[in-house]
TrEMBL record:
SMART domains: POLIIIAc. Pfam families: PHP, PHP_C. This is PHP domain-containing protein. Residues 1-22 are annotated as: Disordered. InterPro entries: PHP_dom (IPR004013), PHP_domain (IPR052018), Pol/His_phosphatase_N (IPR003141), Pol/histidinol_Pase-like (IPR016195). Residues 11-22 have a biased composition (Basic and acidic residues).
Length: 260
């Protein structure tokens, strides 16, 4: 007889593989364990190499490995969760959604309607598998409430994510799934991806501090202007544990029964 367990996933995290990311995937995985998550999806901008590496390493940390990428479509950003190949950037939104599905993943619209963050506009969302209704990287709660209302009104499943660009903010928001499993072997990336698309998730989280969001945007603007490559090794990992919320420990305890 199977058991129902809670699985906590942060499906939108950036590593140093992104132009605006700061941490190696090893540090992100460590942080996921520290805050009680069961897995993260590294979704770097238009590159999947670090995400594939994170998915391969996840089991060493006792986590579920789920690859993904944040794709720049012609209409805005799209999370491709559960794919092992990057869909080509620049294609129309609808075509990219179909490509994500062909690759065995789910297409999730992150930070919708936010033009400054390349969010997909309301008229362009069309068919997708889920909408990010809680993104921790926002200045106020208005944008999340707007995303949630849109998802509810149009029947889209909702997910929550930290959109972390440094390890300290991994798990600031997360998606919790209830799964009926017989053993830890049932907690696969494919199973979790299927559940995300099924719309059975619960969302949890809190927004980033206003000062942190502002400093991040200023930093990214400066990096772009100077042509700096942020993929070099970062010394900031040494102090990454200092901030961040401890969340998801209850959800992780449900899975821990198979690890004892």
């Amino acid at each position: 007889m199977g058991r129902e367990v809670s699985v906590a996933i942060d499906p939108h995290v950036h590593s140093e593989g992104s132009y605006d990311g700061h941490e190696p995937v090893e540090r992100l995985l460590e942080r996921a364990v520290e805050v009680g998550l069961d897995g993260i999806v590294v979704t770097d901008h238009d590159t999947i190499e670090e995400s594939l590496r994170a998915a391969d390493l996840a089991a060493d940390y006792g986590l579920v490995g789920i690859p993904g990428v944040e794709v720049s479509t012609a209409q805005g950003h799209l999370l491709a969760i559960g794919v092992e190949q990057r869909p080509p950037p620049g294609d129309p939104f609808d075509e990219t959604v179909e490509r994500v599905r062909e690759l065995g993943g789910v297409a999730v619209v992150p930070h919708p309607f936010q033009r400054t963050r390349h969010g997909v506009g309301k008229r362009s969302v069309g068919d997708c598998d889920a909408v990010e209704v809680y993104n921790a990287w926002v200045f106020t709660g208005y944008r999340n409430r707007r995303a949630r209302r849109f998802a509810d009104a149009n029947g889209y499943p909702g997910v929550a994510a930290s959109d972390a660009h440094s390890a300290a903010y991994v798990g600031r928001a997360y998606t919790e799934l209830l799964l009926d499993v017989d053993s830890l072997d049932d907690l696969t990336a494919e199973r979790i991806v299927d559940e995300l698309a099924a719309g059975s998730a619960t969302i949890e989280g809190r927004r980033q501090p206003l000062w942190r969001s502002a400093s991040h945007y200023a930093s990214c603007t400066g990096r772009r202007a100077r042509g700096v490559d942020p993929r070099r090794p970062s010394l900031r990992t040494l102090g990454a544990v200092a901030g961040g919320a401890v969340v998801g420990s209850v959800a992780r305890a449900g899975v821990a029964q198979f690890r004892s």
